[in-house]
Amino acid sequence: MHCLRHINEAKESAVVNVSSGLGIVPLVIVPIYSATKAALHSFSISLRKQLANTSVKVFEILPPIVDTDLDRGARDKRGQKDKGISAETVAIESVKAIANDKLEIPIGIVKVLRIGSRINPKLFLKIINKNSPVKEL
User: Fold this and answer.
1) Dist CA 8 CA 11 (whole Å)
2) Which residue in 13, 69, 92, 133 has the most C-beta neighbors within 10 A?
């Protein structure tokens, strides 16, 4: 938080956080990852409100699964076939949204996830975790 004082001195400045759709609806096989992304989502909202009357804009990018080496390795371990969207797509959509001052930037399927989880959270939790090896207790 110390750096915010310096950021605020600039005429225009921004904080850009990259969270995840899993911060909205968790994937139960990665609870710590999902929880940290939920915390970052909450932090982004809070920081945005705290800095509302300053020159600092707080953006949050919420991508779905992104096709990276890290994701491919995890996907192979889980036996998952479907791959995420390209990092290039995430970058293009993010830059365009930031240029248009969209502060919360859901990308791809996260747009549906964000709205659907508000309407029927239990259903979307089930959908996201449909192939999970974790069974309910």
Assistant:
1) 8
2) 13
* Residue 5, number of CB atoms within 10 A of its CB: 8
Enumerate the domain spans of the chain: 15-128
Query: What local confidence, expressed as pLDDT, does residue 137 receive?
Result: 46
CATH superfamily entry for domain 15-128? NAD(P)-binding Rossmann-like Domain (3.40.50.720)
* pTM for this prediction: 0.85
**Half-sphere exposure of 117 toward its Cβ, with a 13 Å CA cutoff?**
16
- Kindly name the residue from 33, 36, 45, 91 that is annotated as catalytic: 33
CA distance 93 to 114: 17
- pLDDT above 70: residue 75: no
Whether residue 24 lies in the annotated active site: no
The residue to which tokens 């800095």 are assigned:
51
Sheet strands (E) in 19-124? 56-62, 104-106
